[in-house]
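re: that chain from earlier
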Amino acid sequence: MADQESLTPTTPEVGPTPDQSSFAKAVLLPATAILGILLIGASTGWFLSSGGEVRGLQDQVERAPGAEVSFGGKEVGLDDKETFRDNAEGILEKDGLDGEGTHHLVRDGGETQYVYLTSSVVDLSDFVGRKVEVWGETVSAQKVGWLMDVGRVKVLE
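^ sequence. v structure.
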């Protein structure tokens, strides 16, 4: 009888096999994380593309006076007469002099009357070869007689 007791099968404990737990750790967990990241990214993209705004933020931000850039007609730039109070007129040409200015205005009286220009507001390249009037702020120069930071350009011809 002792032989019969030793031959009786015993039931093993129920639980995950080593293959099942390693599958969960190696595949399911990263797949779930990647799916979550993709859903968050898609939601963010959809929100931004549909013109979503952060509520209340626009009410808190004030525009600087004259900060409207206009492109209408023959004038381009900021309408800020307090900052851009200096003006000059001439034919706009490319290149400054010895690193001062990106463009210059050719005026009557020769090179001594040129106004050298730079601008972070207006793309002066759009007006090369045209007669223009510019408004800006005079800035100190090392090598040229007049260096102006342009804020507004009006095409005359």
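The chain has two domains: 17-63, 71-155.
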